[in-house]
Amino acid sequence: MFVKICGIRDLDTARVAVQAGADAIGFVHHPASPRHIEAAGIRAVLEGLDDQAVETVLVVRRLPVEQVLKVAHDSGVATVQFHGGESDEDLQRAVSEGFSVIRALSLTEYASSSPTSSISARLMLDAPEPGQGQLIDAEEFTTRPAEPWILAGGLTVENVRAQIRHLRPGGVDVSSGVESSRGVKDHAKIAAFVQNARS
Questions:
Q1: What is the pTM of this model?
Q2: Is residue 10 annotated as part of the catalytic site, yes or no?
Q3: pLDDT digits (tens, 9 = 90+) for 117-136
C-alpha cells in the first residue's frame, strides 16, 4: 500500500513521516492554504533529509504550468501533483522536464473525464468537493480505474482501514486527517496512519 503524507512544512515532520514508513511526502504550494510552503522552504527540508528514500511531491492547484515547473525545479522535488485546471499538454510538459506526475481529480471530475492513456500520470481520486475533508462514498464509486490509483479525501487514522477495504485503492493520501489543528501535523497520528493503512 503506497502511503503519502501531504502538507509537510518542516524538517521534523518530514523526518517523522519517513521514519514511519511513508512512501511519499507532499508539499503544498498554494498561498491560500494554511499548509503553503515556498520553493526555498521545500528545498531546505529536502536537504535536511539527506537523500532518504522517499518520493517528494509538489502539490499545486490551478497555477500556470510555467510557474509550477519553476517551483518544482527550484525546490528539487521529484513529482508534481496537479489539482484541476491543467491540460494534457501541461502534464506532458512536466513529464518531458523529468518529473513524475500525479493527476488529482474529484470523483465528479473522474466520472465525466476521458483520461488520456498516452500521458504517464498516476491517478488520485478525491471526494466530490476536494479539500473539505469528505470521504468518497463507496456506493457512488461505481467505475473503478483499471490501473492502481491513490485515494484521498477525509482519511483519518480511524477510517483508513475501512476505506481501503471498501474501495481497494493502490495507495492513500492524507493531510488534515493527521493534524492536531489546521495546518499543524500531529507526529503520533502520522505514525498511526501509516501503520493502519498497511495493516
A1: 0.93
A2: no
A3: 556 789 999 876 655 667 87
